[in-house]
Amino acid sequence: MTQLGTARPYKEGLWKTGADGQPVLVGSRCSACAQVHFPPKPICPDCGGRNVEQVELSRCGRIYSFTTVYQGPAGFRTPYVIGYVDLPEGLRIFTQLVDTQPLALDQPVVLDIGPVKEGDSETEVIGIRFRPVEEEVAS
Amino acid sequence: MSETRILGVGMTRFARQPDRTPEDLAQEAILAALDDAGLRPQDVEAAFVGSAYLGDGTGQRILKDLGIVGVPIVNVANACASGGNAMHEADMWIRAQACEVALAVGVESLSRSLSGGMIPLAEDDLFGGLGLPLPGVYALIGRRYMAEYGATPEDFAMVTVKSRQHAMHNPYAMFQGRLTTIEEVLGSRMISDPITKLMCCANADGAAAVVLGSARAARRAGGTPVIIAGAAMGSGTLRDRIEQWEDEAAARVARQAYEAAGIGPEDVDVAEIQDPFTVAAVVYAEALGLAPHGEGARAFADGRFDVGTSGPAINTGGGLLSRGHPLGATGLAQVHDLVRQLRGQARGNQVEDAKVAVQFNAGGTVFELQSNACLVQVLVR
């Protein structure tokens, strides 16, 4: 795990430190219709309900699709792997994928917040990553 | 409410032409469209100018030199759908009887607006900040599509091969005369697997323009104009939910446009479909009902969308893949090509007796949505 003191999230508000001290993605759930969204929304985008609460999302999911990027935006060291991961909450999350040998569709993966691009010498830019696991474990 | 007519179309060659200003490019396209319509700049009652990157005042900078001044000038920025969006605005104004003759312009100079390479996303974008390049959007769709429907990288490569064949007859296309093979497409540099360099469209500079008119303006102009039988525009919905993830925006907007026109996909003779990457051509052909779900890749590979076959001909001018993609101009270049088809003026790649055409123009940069904007127009003669 990256030392969080020297790390800067690429975007604020996507994850927090869970009760077990490990990062966990944060979604929003509507108290009226119970629909969950990621990233968290200020109101419910489905029913318009104003009462939404933050919820911790599952750390484990399955790969919906993936691709290896050989020509990426500035600051990303190629090749790297990106993909979509499906969570039990019915959410499809865009993510980087690490430790990817081998990789297959529908493979179980687990959240692994960590470096996603080259930062400057002082700070590391961290973001959403998942890595393969043998079996889905309880999150 | 009376249907809008297309009185004239014009475009520049699409190519890398960094020596030409956006104003210069757009003025050439506008004058070509006005000549085609038999109208003068002074006949334009409102103008709608689309570009993704050129910014505030683009329309005014272009139009002042032609004497198109004093009238309402509306600038439209909506990613790769800016051109189609500009035309849709013009169409709405005419249908609302706010004017009789309107001009739609699309222009882009990517040589001047970008330092080169791919279209960038913001660093704190939910997707861009993790390194999503635009080809990756379609690589991810393509990987899943191959697994679900048994399509192959060869199928996706064939879309480029077919595109180059169609562009052989298009003097405006960046890649006219550049035929290719499956081997060459698959052997070109890997960008984001399974998408190789030759499965991507190229940045280009260019402009296109369309003159639109009311039924009365069309009667004054004479001839038999192409009619916008139905048009619809929409944006994508949030796709973080798995059940909302499938790209329904294109299919939804197409359904609305077909319904407005009273015409179905089975009636379409010729189509222009946004194909920034080969995978896009496949999934959008399906969304428009031109191939059954899961069969689009095979349909392209089997040549079912070639000119001269029984199926609807798709991207007869080469599409974005071979025409080149000056973002704001693309939507109106699509209309240019379809109007020439419907008039029987498509030299070399004419679809025999083409009566019904459909256009799909779309743009995306905010990938929490399926698309920033997508637009379908059904044209008939």
List the SSEs and their pairings.
The complex is a heterodimer of chains A (139) and B (381).
Chain A: E1 7-9, E2 15-17, E3 23-30, E4 36-37, E5 52-56, E6 60-69, E7 80-86, E8 92-97, E9 108-111, E10 114-117, E11 124-127, E12 129-132
Parallel strand pairs in A: 1-11, 8-12
Antiparallel strand pairs in A: 2-3, 3-4, 3-5, 6-7, 6-9, 7-8, 9-12, 10-11
Chain B: E1 5-11, H1 22-37, E2 46-50, H2 58-63, E3 73-76, H3 82-95, E4 101-109, H4 110-113, H5 134-149, H6 153-167, H7 182-187, E5 190-192, E6 195-196, E7 205-213, H8 215-221, E8 226-234, H9 248-261, E9 270-273, H10 278-287, H11 296-301, E10 313-314, H12 319-323, H13 327-342, E11 356-363, E12 373-380
Parallel strand pairs in B: 2-3, 2-4, 9-10, 9-11
Antiparallel strand pairs in B: 1-7, 1-8, 4-7, 5-6, 8-12, 11-12
Number of helices of chain A: 0
Number of helices of chain B: 13
Quaternary structure = heterodimer
What is the H-and-E element order of chain A? Answer: EEEEEEEEEEEE
Average of the residue pLDDT scores of chain A: 91
Strand order of the largest sheet of chain A: 6-7-8-12-9
How far apart lie the N and C ends of chain A? 17 Å
- Biggest interface and which pair forms it? A-B, 38 and 38 residues
Number of DSSP E strands of chain A: 12
- Please tell me how large the radius of gyration of chain A is: 16 Å
How far the N terminus sits from the C terminus of chain B, by CA atoms, comes to: 18 Å
Strand order of the largest sheet of chain B: 3-2-4-7-1-8-12-11-9-10
Task: Supply the helix-strand structural class of chain B.
Answer: alpha/beta
Structural class of chain A: mainly beta
Strand content of chain B: 15-25%
